[in-house]
Amino acid sequence: MVLTNLIASTVYINVLCVTTLPVSIMVALLVHTLVNSLASYYYDGVLTLLVVTMTSLLGWCKENTVDHRLGVNNNTNSTSLVLSMVLVVLSEAALFVSILWVVVLVLVSTHSSYIEYPSLLYNIIITYGTTTSGVHFQNALTIINTDLLLFTGVLSVVVVHCNSTSTMLYTHSLFTYIIILGGVFVVVQCCEYVHLYWNMFSAGTAMMFYVTTGIHGTHVLIGVMLLTGYWVQLIAWGLYNNHDTMIVGGMVSIILYWHFVDCIWVGVVCLVYWTQLIM
């Protein structure tokens, strides 16, 4: 009787994972395509969004009917899930490389103007007629966000280790910390937008700042949603998580996406905040 219940519970967990983790990746793909569609004035973007939606729905139905009925819930599904996330990360990396390359071109074109003025890292102090200068980062919110993301990247590596060693209590706690810190990052980013003394229409560089940081903030929000979905699975069915290849593949995929968000933020800080783009 116990063995029967265990098998039934395992099958139910497999079905649940198939219905949630691929759907989360499908949502991320749809958001990415929607952003590209809104940024374009052509109908091709909307057509691409429709094609991706229909293809994802057909794949989702296949996963929940044909594959489950035939028992195709094994390492192949887990490998496919990781590979699909790798493709998503590569496409998103291409998107951010193009955006950051535009930022570099703008900085090069305005090189003569930002040499004349000090950047955000340069601080000049005049005391009793004595002028001293030095490097000082004046944007505390950016430092907070950078520290938060880098710390969550370290915690995500520890989460993978805890899950592999079946210490589920630590896994639950660390996932909770990562979700909270990711939410704090989004809140701090919103606070930064509120306290800026310019808007998107102030200048071309201001619009580029909003676009670059806004798209990255959207990816952080998607990552928090993926982590939250996996955290719910850990809380509800944590007994089978470290034994199911589909679950482990989903966790590795989400952690890979989160590391990608961390690396992109480092590039955004170096090119956007440490230069005079937002002055």
UniProtKB/TrEMBL annotation:
GO molecular function, one term: cytochrome-c oxidase activity
Membrane topology, record value: Multi-pass membrane protein
Localization, UniProt: Membrane
Heme-copper oxidase subunit III family profile domain: residues covered: 1-277
One Gene Ontology CC term in the entry: mitochondrion
Keyword Repeat: no
Transmembrane segments annotated in the record for this chain: 12-34, 41-60, 80-108, 120-137, 143-162, 174-198, 218-240, 252-274
Short name of one Pfam family: COX3
GO BP terms, alphabetized: mitochondrial electron transport, cytochrome c to oxygen
Function: Component of the cytochrome c oxidase, the last enzyme in the mitochondrial electron transport chain which drives oxidative phosphorylation. The respiratory chain contains 3 multisubunit complexes succinate dehydrogenase (complex II, CII), ubiquinol-cytochrome c oxidoreductase (cytochrome b-c1 complex, complex III, CIII) and cytochrome c oxidase (complex IV, CIV), that cooperate to transfer electrons derived from NADH and succinate to molecular oxygen, creating an electrochemical gradient over the inner membrane that drives transmembrane transport and the ATP synthase.
PANTHER family referenced in this protein's UniProt entry, alphabetically: CYTOCHROME C OXIDASE SUBUNIT 3, CYTOCHROME C OXIDASE SUBUNIT III
UniProt record similarity statement: Belongs to the cytochrome c oxidase subunit 3 family.
Descriptive protein name: Cytochrome c oxidase subunit 3
Species for this entry: Sulcionema specki
